[in-house]
Sequence to fold (812 residues):
Amino acid sequence: MAQNARSRKADKVVERMGRKLTRQMVGSLVGCVHCGMCTDSCHYVLANPDDPTYAPAHKADQIRKIFKRNFDWTGRIFPWWVHAEDIRTDADLEKLKDIVFGKCTNCRRCSLNCPMGVDFATLNRMARGALVSVGIMPEGVAIVSKDQWEVGNQMGVLPQDYLETLEWLSDELENEFKDPAARIPIDKMDAEIVYAINPREVKYDPRTISDAARIFYIAGENWTMPSEGWDMTNFGLFSGDDELGAAVAQRVYDRVIKLRGKKLVLSECGHGYRSTRCEGPNWSGKAVPFVIESSVLTMLRYIKEGWIRVDKTKNKEVVTFHDSCNNARSCGFYEEPRELLNLLVPDFREMYPNCAENFCCTGGGGAMSMSEYTPQRLKSAKIKADQLTATEAKTVVTSCHNCVDGLSDVIRHYKLGMKVTQLVNLAANAMMIPEKVVVPVEVPIPAVALPLAGFKILVVDDEPDILTFLAAVLEDQGATVIQAVDGEQALALTVREKPDLVTLDLSMPGRNGGYVFEEIRNNPEITSTRVCIITGKPELRRLIYERPVAPPEGYLDKPVNEDTLLTSVRMILELKHPHGNA
Amino acid sequence: MSESLRFVSDDLQLMAMSFMALVYILRIRWLLKFKASRDRQAPSENRDASSFKGIVYSWANIAMPWSMESTRRMSFFYIQFVVFHLTMAANIGMSIVIPYAPGLIRPMIVVRLLQILFAAACAIGCYRMFRRLSNPAMRLISTPDDYFSLALLTVWSFVSIFAAPNRPDLGEGLLMVYFIMTAFFLVYVPFSKISHYLYYPFTRFYFGRTMGYRGVYPLKRVTQPKPTNR
Ligand code: SF4
Ligand code: SF4
Fold:
């Protein structure tokens, strides 16, 4: 019996394989007709024309033969006829390891080029996972996986280092904008956006964090970074370890839930995006109760909706764009980065092939952590190097940290003289800094609770002096005050921030207060928001009350003094008056 | 028509087909026993993405040689594929038409067309055998089943050239060989890679469903402008 001749580890690998096989995988295992159509889609094959062992179908056959021998009766009955073969010794497992980790970056390019729909990359990942389950893996994979299991992030960044990095980045930001609000909020509750990053950013590229922070600040975003569960990368994708994948993704999701964040925004990282956005819910078996999006989409929205303004001429270099395999080929995320890039640079040159057909940076699938395979990785990178050279660009933009490292290695090795950057860097560089930045100001809650503590109030007025006066009075009483200078902004902030009260000026340029008021009442999401009209034109009062919607909760005429304002606000918020008269 | 020819063209075919169908049913049951994984993530950020579109695109992929780099690059191989597969379908059709509706292939034009197809398939089969033997990567991935299946179809196509006129009156030998080969083919198919057409709808369904849901399918790409001679 074949089973009896197996080593203990080989036995476990076969057993795990049996548990992990899905219908999709079995289809891919039985569906290959050995037509060879996929062969030339692999960068390893193209860079090693004399070595047929790199052919995707051959690599897949090393997994297929185990499957056929153990799970498919054609292979059980006629093993020789269909090349079915069992895996027996630990040496066999080591050989398989060198194929699934060392000869494939799981880029899925061959899968896309197979007429039968054979998804080799998925099979390869499954085989990696089976080997990892018995401890057979490249050393780098073992180290990184351990860090992600134990420290909570794949680069072993300690909590203290992470928080200190955010601290000094905040100091820099505050200095740059001369604004105490210009800081990176940590663990802020109820934020609109919880921003998760790649630990590489803390360790090697903090510029990407500060660039993102500058963008959030200028956009006036209500955002935060979590003190835990901040690593959105996931080595489970590379190691094939679904348990690690599920645990890491869940750590991030749990944190967002705990902070009651509305949306999880992921910094630019292809495998992080795929793991956290796409595969995480599959690994953990649960759907995620909040929105997850790439920061590329967030930045694109900011520009399109006017939250930030950019001047593309600030990015002078000729650039090309490299699609990350995980973004483009596994998540269909290739149009939005191009749309954003075109808003950020004047001279963008496509790389061919591109989008989902692009070639891997050759550092994918965790290859950067497997130093034993570096020579063959760099040899296969010739394809990428040629692709980059053909663009004649001096800068390659990518939306993936892993690709930044992979491409930098290719550029160094082939002496291409190019530089690699990300969309966030270009966006931050192109961003125009307005004179006045409106940010949701969070007032620290003092030890003695103030009467308006815990209330969020949006003050809307086009006159800066009045805005400052209203904000100061309300903040002094403990309210969290958000400011808006026109009707457009007022509506957006009301929807986004869900304030307890809006103080609304009626006469403003653009969308006036009357319009804003009616919009608030007509929008079921915010219809119950309490509104206090504060206007210098009492004649407009009639217009407000004649609208076919419920009247505002309060009405004050300008000039308004501190006492009247506070009394009205407290009445509207149904707080007991300090003097007892409701 | 002799009793033996009637038997091999009729009863034997029915037996072989029933056997094939039975094995196929067992095979599909076996495949369905494996759990299909689901996509639990929120829909793609690409507003046009849909599983349905992905599935349709994935199934239609075979008829859209422009949709894959491999078929774009290997257009000659793609044409061979089309001819070869159409011929195999025609050949199966002929094995049913001869015993049950021989009138359909009586016109000489139909016979000649079939013969041209069979000859083309035979030539393609020979070329593919050569490719499989001469290309190191192809040699490496080829199993005895791959060689045998290809040889079987090539020889079957060759024999079909002579069976197409359906003239038992001129000698039953070739028709006997044709029907015996057809029966053998039907019995062998479920155990061989030839049964890939059985898996095709499944593999492409699941791949298309995921790729469609995630917005990868239908594929979009920016094509390289043709170099202009200035
Ligand atoms: S994986 Fe697909 S393209 Fe590659 S040899 Fe198999 S059937 Fe052909
Ligand atoms: S997944 Fe990518 S690296 Fe792996 S065999 Fe396929 S094309 Fe090659």
Remarks:
- Chain A has three domains: 8-137, 142-430, 447-576.
